[in-house]
What we know:
Blueprint: H1 3-69, H2 80-92, E1 97-102, E2 107-112, H3 125-128, H4 131-140, E3 144-149, E4 152-160, E5 170-177, H5 180-190, E6 195-198, H6 206-216, E7 221-226, E8 230-238, E9 244-253, H7 255-307, H8 321-364, E10 367-372, E11 377-380, H9 382-387, H10 400-403, H11 408-422, E12 429-436, E13 442-453, E14 459-468, H12 470-484, H13 494-510, E15 515-523, H14 526-533, H15 535-559, E16 564-570, E17 573-581, H16 584-597, E18 602-604, E19 607-609, E20 613-619, H17 627-643, E21 649-651, H18 654-676, E22 679-688, E23 694-705, E24 709-711, H19 713-723, H20 725-747, E25 755-760, H21 762-765, H22 770-781, E26 788-793, H23 794-799, H24 801-813, E27 817-823, H25 830-833, E28 840-843, H26 845-851, H27 855-870, E29 874-878, H28 883-891, E30 896-898, H29 908-917
Parallel strand pairs: 20-21, 23-25, 25-26, 26-27, 27-28, 28-29, 29-30
Antiparallel strand pairs: 1-2, 1-5, 3-4, 4-5, 6-9, 7-8, 8-9, 10-11, 10-14, 12-13, 13-14, 15-17, 15-20, 16-17, 18-19, 22-23, 22-30, 23-24
Amino acid sequence: MSLRVKVELILFITFALVIGLGYGIQRFVVIPQLVPVEREAAGRDMERCIGVLERQRLALRKACAELADAPLLRGEAPTGETARALAGAARELDLNAVVLLDVGFNPIAAHYSSSDGASASAYDSDAWIARSELLQATAVGQGAGVDLTGLGPALVAVSALSGAAESPLGYLVIYRLITPEHIQEMQRQAATSFQLWPVTDPVLSPEERSIVQEFLAGKKLHIEETGSDLFRVYAAYPGLTGRPVLLLRSDLQRNLLARARATMQTGLLANVGVGLAALVLLIILFRRTVMDSLSLLTRHAAHIGKTGDLSLRLVMDRGDELGTLSHEFNRMVEQLEADRAYQLEVKEQLRESEERYARAVRGANDGLWDWNLGTDEIHFSERWKNMLGFEGGEIGPSPDEWLDRIHPDDRENVLAALEAHRLQKTAHFESEHRIRHKSGTYLWVLCRGLAVWNPDGEPTQMAGSQTDITLRKIFEEQLRHQALHDSLTSLPNRALFLDRLTQAIKMGTRHAGYQFAVLFLDLDRFKVINDGLGHVIGDALLGLFAEKLRGILRAVDSVCRHSGTLARFGGDEFVVLLDNISSVADATLVARRVERALEEPFRIDSHEVYTTCSIGIAMSNPGYTSAEELIRNADTAMYRAKAQGKACFEIFDSDMHSKAMERLQLENDMRRAIDRGEFIVHYQPIISLESGRITAFEALIRWRSPERGLVSPAEFIPIAEETGMIVALGEFVLRTACAQARAWHEELPRYADLKISVNLSVKEFGKPDLIGSITDILTETRLDPRLLKLEITESALMDSVEFVTRTLRQLRDMGIELLIDDFGTGYSSLSYLHRFPTHTLKIDQSFIRDMQGSHESAQIVRTVVLLARALSMGTIAEGIEEESQARRLRDLECGAGQGYFFSRPLPVEEATALLKSDPVWFAPPPDNG
Ligand code: C2E
Ligand code: MG
Ligand code: MG
């Protein structure tokens, strides 16, 4: 049912109820209150009727008394006159009977008449006189009343004839019949209509008879409603003796009620009319003000519902609740529109995410599993099953399908990881384990998963993936092997050896009496074999040597109950860790066996290769804390063996140990010296052999140690190189020298082009940011790069030709001059020389020194000068101690020289003083041309 119908129905019902209530109140409250009033009025009407009767009775009594006073009866017997008098009275008083009675109540004269003029004789006097009643009437003094005669009810009056009361002459009785005319008259007087009957009248209905009985019992009035608009009022009228003889009945119109009803009806009709009009008006107003807007809203909502078009807005300009409702509705739609847009976006993102996920799953090739921990069932994806070689139906939903296939060695760990995650001890479940393939082989898988817990902390669901990582595992194993093994011989490499040795050292600190030894083996003259027979033979030799060592160790292991680890350190260096030996004799036994084994030649292709090896042995000692230290000692012993003439073994002893300790001390002192600024730079001039003037200085580092005095670089540079301290030292020298050169340029304009030469170590060369730090220092000291020379030893150049060449090119491009230091002492391959972007060769001082005595040295110097010229390079001779050497070199057209003849390396103040003196060493050669 629509709201409109409902509201209209409610209005209508309300209307009907109001009308009904009004009617009801009138009908059942107002009208009943009218009844007593009406009854009272009816009673009064009846009283009026009775009053009329009563007045007639009294008038008759009075008339009777007056007539009785007249001398009607003179004697005992009536006369004619008496009869005339009676007739006259009857006429005059409209009487129907006038009777004279004697004292014995016997009629003595009478006159009868009827109103219709009928003969009086038609009446039987007995019908008139009821003697007993008359007697009673006179006895009670009741002189008048109604009597029922044979002709009907009549008013009767009795009076004693004049005389003494105690002795009356007789009685006069007069009758007047109550005729319909009389009744009409009385009705007129009473202004109401009534009827009367003798109470004994047989026409009375049984109800009326019972009313009569009530009257006889003393009741005065009886009123009953007859029909809806009539009151029937009964009353009794008494006879001569006072007993009711007449029953009076008056039917009264209930006028008040009728009028009230009529008024009520009119009012009701008016109410209904006005009410209906109000109702209609109300409904119209309701429709206009509420329903129209509501139906607009409904239509709008329905339209949106049907079309889903949320862009529509409801226009309803009202200031009331409906206006607010439409406004709120619009807001709601706006919100919905925004929500829908957001949902669409989220949906799109979800779709993309799902697609991505699906792609990822396809791409990742992972198997998926989803474990319902409540039912203990797992759903395995197809890929999961296929990974293990199964098809869809072959694997059920039981977790055992998975867990039972895990390798027995891994199962415990997997279960522990699962349990840990279930107990929320881990953020996710992750395990790498082996799982059995259908074929019976094992795959390596990576299993990851994540559980979901309910609010009670119980895990309910767990899902995750399984990735086949077998290839990765194999690869990792290979990598691990490669990382720890030498590729040529498959022996453990340095890293693995260090690890084993560290463990042995730890073992030694824990167990007194536990002894081990490190043997350092180096093939003698391997470089010769390698260079001479080629790398292939060299490699084969190393492989066979490794094989031989393995055999020896196996044999020794089975004799003595110790074990050995053999490793290759690179090149021709091998090391052996002899574990759990009883004495140094065990180690020397191995060393001797190796020596003996090498007496036999190696047969490689068609070659028979003989080789020997030098062995250094270092025994375990509780003082050792690092593996490096032990290896270094074994290495030291090995060098000693080589120095002893090779093909033998040496045991690291206390002397070697003290030397090593000394070196360690030096190392420590050096570290401190850097911090304390004990390093200084001396400068040695480089002189143009043409002009005899200083063209450059070489910066040479010195260590002015408070304990050791001035320490030569020959002593500490190798250690600095080994420990890496050279980088800091090199930077210090470069910075100091550049700054000094710059200072000289500024102080001495004559030497504005003075160059500064700085030595660059092999180790510094390997530094990745070498170029950067040189650039920084040049910028910092504002030195022109063209005034900087860098000296690099031959060995540095040969170390890594490609890399060095690239770096040198960069330096050259910066404008820096590059020198090859100590040229002639290394193994420079002449074929490489022209490829290096170097400018100058510094001929090693050994050639200069020997130049005088040895013809060969002089030839070498000459050749080097020529070679340099051929390569468009300059030359500098080092170690010129005598003038003759200088002159000789000048003759050989060597560009520049450096040596004690000119000056030793000088502290900065002395070098400055030298510059200021502007020295010239020998006169320029005479101009031949
Ligand atoms: P080097 O670069 O070849 O330097 C020349 C060496 O010969 C210097 O020895 C110098 O004092 C010495 N000398 C010069 N003239 C004569 C002479 O007439 N007779 C003799 N017998 N010797 C002469 P020093 O200063 O002891 O340096 C030794 C080596 O230490 C240098 O050889 C160089 O390789 C290295 N060195 C020195 N300072 C540095 C430095 O700052 N950095 C690096 N990386 N190495 C440096
Ligand atoms: Mg040098
Ligand atoms: Mg040199």
